[in-house]
Amino acid sequence: MKLKRVIIMCNVVLILSGGVDSTTLLYDLVDQGYNVYALGFNYGQKHVKELEYAKKTCKKLNVNFKVINLENLGEIMYSSLTSDEEDIPEGHYESESMKSTVVPNRNMVMLAIATSYACTLKAESLFYGAHAGDHCVPGNELVFTNIGKKLMSELQINDLVLSNDFNAKKISFKRVVKKISNGIRNDIFKITTKAGRSFKVTGNHRIFQIKRYDFDRHTGWEKELIETYAKDIKPDDWLLAPASDRMLLENGKHKTELVDLLNYCDLNHSQLQYDNDNIWFKKNNKVCRFVSKESFIRLLSWYITEGSKSTKYRYNANTYRVGIPQSKIKNPLYYDEIINTVREWGFNVCESSDTIFFSGPTTKVFELCGNISRNKQIPNEFLLYDIHTLFDTLIKGDGHISSERSYQYVTNSLKLKEQVSWLSIILGNSVGVNITTNSCYGISIRNSFKKKINKFGECRMVQVKTVEKCNSTEVFDIEVEDNHNFFIGTGSGVLVSNSIYPDCRPEFVEKMKDVIKICDYHPLDLVVPYLHVDKAEIIRKGIILEVDYSMTWTCYSGKQKACGKCGSCMERLEAFEYNNIKDPVEYLM
After folding, report:
1. pTM metric for this prediction
2. Whose CA is closest to 127, among 507, 529, 504?
3. Which residues of the chain have pLDDT under 50?
4. Domains in the chain with CATH codes
5. How many other C-beta atoms are found inside a 10 Å radius of the C-beta of residue 300?
6. Which candidate, 34, 127, 117, places its Cα nearest to that of 522?
7. Distance in angstroms (rounded) separating the CA atoms of residues 120 and 127
8. Do 196 and 258 contact (CB within 8 A), yes or no?
9. Coil, strand or helix: which one is 367?
10. CB neighbours of 434 closer than 8 A, spacing ≥ 6?
């Protein structure tokens, strides 16, 4: 793609580090026609190599670039990023050790200098590339209210929030009648393998572990497999993973997960049956108790009907059959409305003792309900990539988080709870937190599955590199009037995490905007466009802009090749992996 550079709109200043985020933002601004003045800072960081890449990128794009020398700051501001006495810690940002990488008030210092530069140039805006992956994720998620978006933690009783009523034909604002804040009882663990795969699960998530790694591949697998909990996994343990993972890795794609207890349950052609108290899962003529409560069938039928309207599918799709006995639905108007809606939209309806809805594919784009999309009140589509995860989790009874699409489904006292953290629209309750094994139903792996692994050789071993607890502390559950606790927002639950980079938080950005306005030397806007965007989305945007990521640098270690082990490297690698492309930067490991 050729960058536009046709119309020079105005002067803007960009703080450019030479990393993925600010470099993508530079390409973005140039593409929009801005006359960019880039400003870099040498504060004595070990990874000063990133400034060399920033200079090369600016030369390529014909952008003015200056570097401000602040090397002496290292004498008064201690950090492992600047100190020769301390090594850069390894591991993800969630780790406590990564706090040593904080350079106190670094961003405030850089923004203050950049503000002076922008005022001198009479620039219209000052751009700053902080983003969600830098732990500027807000402590709360946003919900839609009658006066605009609002943090969930700020919601008060009697506030009006945008809510969907299953018994109505369109969304409306509902009054908040209850607000609950819970502490998280079950820790969430992030398990990363030495091959680079990672996934998040609750501590009671059951996984296949291998006792020894030197057994005979063809005869000893069944005896070597043990069922264990994620919380008991340790570094250097060996776990089971699909053999196809190796092939996908060679093709630059990472789609498969480690083998858990239900990987060999083929749910695609299984039947769900609903009665007054329970939903049943039927597989190979064996019926297992699944989960209770009518709220689940309502949510599922919503996705299948209103969530699938007018969708064009690219691939042949497996279907789920969901039975809803008419006699068990308490509200007959709701039942009739579902029937009429399904028929109107061209879905197959079979009325006998049950009403059977045939869904579309489980891994494609689903359009939201017609009322909303036609009126363009909110974006008209959302992604439903992993309903398979939902079924898995309801059977396991824990808080599985999909490693592919950040979906999280958990059961809490047999009630379905859901969180889709990165969507702008969601329908569902907040994430469940008080999870106990006794309150959930599980299913044990059968010997036939283990024998199947032996027979077809479908799995291989992976060695665990790190096991880390995610730093989540609090969740909010909002209930609105009419006994209806569904609302629409950017997240149905709030996982509050303590940022290790205080000057990357949204509240810091807002305060800096106020400070700049108070100075009033020159009208200047502080713009942080990627504040609520994670690194994977930034790279996706960069791919469209044809950003040369080989001329970006992320590693904190100060070595000639990226270490691949520090938090910055790991976040970058995961973002490229998420987009199914290879990082062009060379790594030591």
Report:
1. 0.43
2. 529
3. 1-7, 78-102, 132-140, 164-171, 182-186, 213-223, 243-257, 260-325, 327-330, 341-458, 472-475, 483-500
4. 11-137+499-578 (3.40.50.620)
5. 23
6. 117
7. 15
8. no
9. strand
10. 182, 185, 412, 413
